[in-house]
Recover the amino acids of this structure.
């Protein structure tokens, strides 16, 4: 295999997770080892950083700080939600990328993101090939939603799932404090795939979880929901509901959509709060109980203090594997996880063509979802449990996490 | 000092914290050591458990599980919000308590709670004395609000403060991911005292905190608030606001109160969500930016996985000290903390008469609060920093916290 000499650049894309920076640490620390990689760059805000020739010189950073990236949440070099056009319709951005790549002799391009980002990486790779510019393009997966096609699971999911299960267990204890009837509705992220809400089953297995669980994979029925609540209230004075923000009714409407027309017509602005707040209001109207809505909001995707050690390690390794693969001559692949066994838990890092992962969503299998909000089957538990194992978090300084502190030295524009 | 032989009972009262069970562990494990304490009971749902003769026999529990209580959030034996009447107006409950105490020979009564609970304990102690029933009554403080009079700080506060500061640091990283303008308003608990919201200063000290902080101790001005936001938006594309749920305007109205008339008149039901959601909506109307409201909700009071080691230890010791003091003949005191030094951090456990602590609220000193939401002074930081030190959490089992699992054997009614 021919050695390819040139600079490497990493872009972070899409919503943050607790371990997206762990993948960055993997890419950076591995790339700095290889003599054929002449410089290591971090694109400021993903693709836009490349288009604007704004990238950080990672070679100027302390290795100790790059190590701390493993336990620093969100996207340290900045993320972006920027969708490239179809190059056949508008190749402007692609020509600009080619120009920048040539100017800085960028020969290794790593893109860390979800399915949209893999689509972007794939289009860029094809365009560079068509224009005879040799550049190895590798995708590194990430998403708390766990909805990427072709990989057993995604970096970011394990930590978010651990947050959901742990926090639901703690809320369970909080909810049982008084003996007055009470319904608590917890809203969990996941627009179309319910993987994260499904993690509440891990708390249920401990006897300290929600009583009802609703995923977007199943059509939501309002009447059935209120019947489920009524039934549970007869069994227990406290009822906890885990509810995915992505749940939709038979008309395809999200919960806030169904109710937003009402408030829009009267007030001219959309309903405050999400699905949980609205459902809490509806439950309050029907039952004489205390009701509380809780949103896990951004905490579920950035609670690095509660990250899964397995997730941190896999995210880091995915970044390293991407670099090693590229140096070894591979291109146009995403690093994917293939599960070898559960006992002991073992995965292989494999190559998945970018074209295959782009824009496909992987949902929770319907046969894993029990009816009437009764949670998930044991197949889900066997799948998810290995992913939340172990603790790995930033060291404490003054009782608070010591996150990475990068110098962020911008490369001089040529 | 005369030895007093009889049973001991603990009641938990008011809202939960991460370490209220650590105090229970302290009371139980210490009480089980003393031969003059003939039985150790846990009242099911506080005072109501005593009135109903429903208490758990703690002697039947495994010591290992009682140790695990240290890291189990909320109130394991059940809490209550039940206010006893003035005994001069209606002594019914007091006579019933006396009857139960006599029947089970209860000679030690420990009550763990906030200022209301200390008031309750004080009234009971006085009544028992007046009716010549010898019983030693000791209060154990707890509240995330940190508003108890006469103690340097309260068990529960350190862990909640650590949650607030850590989570704000994580949200800071999440908020800086995109370069589009964005305002995030975070709502933090504290009805009348802003101690918990003040903890956001600890994140600010790290350069990873909110840009604006509003406490209930200062009268809130809407115009000033929007001016503060406008100014910050000129300095940075991302603005994070830490906002106490207890903030009130010049008319004494909480934020939801000011806006609830509006929605009540139009819809017939009260506004969904709290202060943050309403303010987010108002910011959205005034500025062309993305706005997000986040409520720390119950998580801030039950996130035992993020407890402060100092807090856990002090809560545990407060419980032990209460038992030791009672055995040594003391009564009608709350265990309070007296700070000896900050470097090294050291406290003394002292006795505060119950009558002094009852129904008095301790607020954040006004001179510690900077104007225009600019946070807290260094005096606050010196005060709060020692309280959030160290980690102490439940061991992991299957990647999730292994909380205490009590048998909860009810004592046979006599």
């Amino acid at each position: 295999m021919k050695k390819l000499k040139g600079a490497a650049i990493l872009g972070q894309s899409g919503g943050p997770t607790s371990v997206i920076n762990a993948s960055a640490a993997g890419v950076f620390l591995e790339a700095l080892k290889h003599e054929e990689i002449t410089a290591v760059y971090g694109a400021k805000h993903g693709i836009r950083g490349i288009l604007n020739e704004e990238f950080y010189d990672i070679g100027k950073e302390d290795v100790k700080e790059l190590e701390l990236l493993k336990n620093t949440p969100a996207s340290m070099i900045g993320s972006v939600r920027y969708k490239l056009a179809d190059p056949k319709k508008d190749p402007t951005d692609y020509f600009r990328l080619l120009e920048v790549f040539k100017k800085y002799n960028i020969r290794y391009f790593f893109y860390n993101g979800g399915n949209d980002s893999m689509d972007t990486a794939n289009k860029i790779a094809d365009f560079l090939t068509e224009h005879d510019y040799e550049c190895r393009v590798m995708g590194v997966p990430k998403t708390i939603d766990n909805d990427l096609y072709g990989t057993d699971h995604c970096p970011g999911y394990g930590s978010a799932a651990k947050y959901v299960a742990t926090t639901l267990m703690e809320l369970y204890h909080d909810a049982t404090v008084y003996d007055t009837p009470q319904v608590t509705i917890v809203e969990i992220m996941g627009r179309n795939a319910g993987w994260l809400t499904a993690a509440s089953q891990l708390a249920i297995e401990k006897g300290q979880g929600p009583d009802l669980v609703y995923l977007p994979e199943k059509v939501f029925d309002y009447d059935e929901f209120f019947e489920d609540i009524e039934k549970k209230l007869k069994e227990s004075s406290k009822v906890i509901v885990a509810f995915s923000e992505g749940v939709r009714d038979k008309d395809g409407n999200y919960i806030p959509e169904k109710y937003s027309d009402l408030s829009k017509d009267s007030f001219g602005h959309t309903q405050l709060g999400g699905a949980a707040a609205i459902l809490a209001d509806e439950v309050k109207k029907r039952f004489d109980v205390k009701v509380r809505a809780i949103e896990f909001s951004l905490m579920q995707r950035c609670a690095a203090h509660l990250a899964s050690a397995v997730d941190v390690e896999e995210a880091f390794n995915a970044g390293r594997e991407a670099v090693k693969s590229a140096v070894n001559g591979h291109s146009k692949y995403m690093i994917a996880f293939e599960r070898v066994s559960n006992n002991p838990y073992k995965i292989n890092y494999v190559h998945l063509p970018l074209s295959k992962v782009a824009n496909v969503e992987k949902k929770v299998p319907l046969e894993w979802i029990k009816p009437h909000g009764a949670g998930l089957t044991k197949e889900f538990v066997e799948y998810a449990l290995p992913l939340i194992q172990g603790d790995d978090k930033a060291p404490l300084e003054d009782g608070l996490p010591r996150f990475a502190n990068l110098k962020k030295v911008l490369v001089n524009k040529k």
Remarks:
- The domain at 157-302 of chain A is CATH 3.40.50.460 (Rossmann fold).
- Confidence is low (pLDDT under 50) at residues 262-273 of chain A.
